[in-house]
Amino acid sequence: MLKFKGVSKTFGSITALEDIDLDISKGEFVFITGPSGSGKTTLLRLILRELLPDKGEIVIAGEDITKMPRKLVPELRQQIGTVFQDFKVLDERTLEENIEIALAVLGISQKEWEKRIENVLELTGLTERRKLFPSQLSGGELQRVSLARALVINPKLILADEPTGNLDWETAQELMELFKQIHKEGKTIIMATHHRGLVDNEDFREIVLNRGKVTGESKDDEDEKKDKHVTGEKDEHEEKDEKVESSDESEKDRKEVADLKHKKEQTKDKIKLKDKIKMKFKK
Ligand SMILES: Nc1ncnc2c1ncn2[C@@H]1O[C@H](COP(=O)(O)OP(=O)(O)O)[C@@H](O)[C@H]1O
Ligand SMILES: [Mg+2]
């Protein structure tokens, strides 16, 4: 369902990913591991088309998304659930409203809307806390809210970027159980993590990145045996340069703060849209 063919991504003089080939099947659970700075987040952002590669193809469900017209990108993102390390919840909204935000853009019936909310609340064990605000929730609960929000759009694919990064070991394991349950129900999951304990506990395929290259792969299934190879280190990485090319469409919101602000604004727009949709249903 997802293929990378010779994908490279640089930021100025930094090579974040180099000549990546990947083939992830529908229903797979794949860990992306590797040290900080090895390219994990860049890989996920490419799948969301938050970034465009310098070269290569990224094929999702038969379509090269690098060639997809911009106006179709929102549609692409509506099929991908995302979970991030820092939860990305809105503090001034209840847990339930935080989940509803994701539904606002989908244009589904009120009945379907309510059904989906009930389902994800139950699945993530949050039904009783639905009216609480983020400040009243623990880290583990907040991450379950993120997961519920990712799931409520009924995505084909779930991308998780260090989802356990802010959780203690026990809570991380609980969250992992939830991811496993979702995987069992048929979802394709790609999880970037350097939580070694979690990876070692599972039999899932692991793709190891190092300085932007795939330096190892493990897969238990017999189908699709991959080459295992270890590549040398590249000097060009030593001199890190935060400069980026301004021509890259993805770089406009380069600074993380700006990025977050932007996301918050977008979310606010979505809430407004959601309210509008709700009003419509009430009529
Ligand atoms: N927007 C960006 N601008 C400049 N450099 C970036 C940007 N995003 C990532 N990088 C660089 O690309 C490399 C890979 O980063 P990243 O994908 O975030 O790694 P990881 O998620 O594995 O920690 C790092 O050297 C990082 O500094
Ligand atoms: Mg990262």
Describe this structure in words.
The strands form two sheets. Strands 6-7-8-3-9-10 form a six-stranded mixed β-sheet, sandwiched between helices. Strands 2-1-4-5 form a four-stranded antiparallel β-sheet, covered by helices on one side. It has eight helices and ten strands. It folds into two domains: 1-79 and 156-228, P-loop containing nucleotide triphosphate hydrolases (Rossmann fold, 3-Layer(aba) Sandwich); 89-136 and 147-154 and 252-283, no CATH class. It is α/β, with parallel strands linked by helices. Bound molecules: adenosine-5'-diphosphate and magnesium ion. Adenosine-5'-diphosphate is lined by residues 11, 14, 16, 34, 36-42, 242, 244, 254.
